[in-house]
Specification:
mainly beta
């Protein structure tokens, strides 16, 4: 799941693992533009929406 305008347009991405009964928050990961050394306002995750 992505939110390119999250955190003052810096963007964010969440990876939610799935099980046979659906998605779960257990073991989920949250990534931001800062995790990849991108500039503030880079709208990380936007191109993943296309």
């Amino acid at each position: 799941m992505t939110a390119s305008f999250e955190n003052d347009r810096s963007g964010g991405l969440w990876a939610l693992p799935g099980t046979s009964s659906g998605l779960t928050g257990s073991g989920s990961k949250s990534l931001s533009s800062a995790d990849f050394g991108l500039a503030s306002g880079s709208r990380f995750g936007e191109t993943l929406l296309d």
